[in-house]
Amino acid sequence: xxxxxxxxxxxxxxxxxxxxxxxxxxxxxxxxxxxxxxxxxxxxxxxxxxxxxxxxxxxxxxxxxxxxxxxxxxxxxxxxxxxxxxxxxxxxxxxxxxxxxxxxxxxxxxxxxxxxxxxxxxxxxxxxxxxxxxxxxxxxxxxxxxxxxxxxxxxxxxxxxxxxxxxxxxxxxxxxxxxxxxxxxxxxxxxxxxxxxxxxxxxxxxxxxxxxxxxxxxxxxxxxxxxxxxxxxxxxxxxxxxxxxxxxxxxxxxxxxxxxxxxxxxxxxxxxxxxxxxxxxxxxxxxxxxxxxxxxxxxxxxxxxxxxxxxxxxxxxxxxxxxxxxxxxxxxxxxxxxxxxxxxxxxxxxxxxxxxxxxxxx
Length: 362
Prior knowledge:
This protein has 362 residues and is of the alpha/beta class. The protein has helices spanning 2-26, 53-61, 83-88, 110-121, 140-146, 167-188, 204-209, 225-234, 256-265, 272-297, 302-326, 336-356, and strands at 40-46, 70-76, 97-101, 126-129, 134-136, 152-158, 200-203, 238-249. It has an 8-stranded mixed beta sheet, with helices on both faces. Strand 1, helix 2 (53-61) and strand 2 (70-76) form a beta-alpha-beta unit. The chain is elongated. The chain starts with a helix and ends in a 6-residue tail after the last helix.
């Protein structure tokens, strides 16, 4: 038990060190200062989004970026409703709007096929992606373009989920803050770990330098994170996080377990160095899950277990408090104690399921 307590404490130290590094990386994120205008293509994959697509297009119609330099490509991804017709009705307010269909479904992931079709139709030097149920802020395009310094190939932005009044929505919104925190902090360190396709942009040149979606086309999901990892590892382009570029959306509560497993399934493709650290963090959570039983059976484990719980709570709180201040999202921290409580079984169960179970796309 003494050896187990020592190993668990060592894993706790690794966890706290990683949290501290992400905290430091958050302080290195900043809005861009690029003054050069670029032609941009906004790609929106949409499948059966007739009831949501108009709100998204209304937000794009209010963008401050020059409309003559903007293409908006809505890709009708096998819709069985009137998504395409409703999108086409906005051509009078968005002159660069076109509706495309995926005619070459060569990849295993339908969303990658849709994105690839939109990229092929558009001509912009910079490609921005979002989802049909998202609401970009008025300066989304302009702020994103400003972040593209000459050596930057990809820019990720803040993609918050609306907390709403329901407990589950609030927890998902707080989880969204965790993801944005990890994205911003890791990019600030120069070692990008995650991002969200709801608010993502990349140079067409960087996309092609990474091989496009071809090398990751056999993987269900990962149109955002796995592309980011390829650009970071296989090209000379730099990746940055822009805290000013914001895209809001509602959390999805349907098919929640399958959706969460799919999110976590991408981690197995990250590479050995990331997986090694992730394994240490996972085993640390397993130790926390087993901690109450071990502490009850073996008194020698009680003090180390208490210190591990306190260290994790403090590290997580300081990190999320820093991020909530950075993103003006302090209200959702009221659910932090509950999220902290369920984070251990979440990591133990969902992350294991994501690594072992095959992911499926809708």
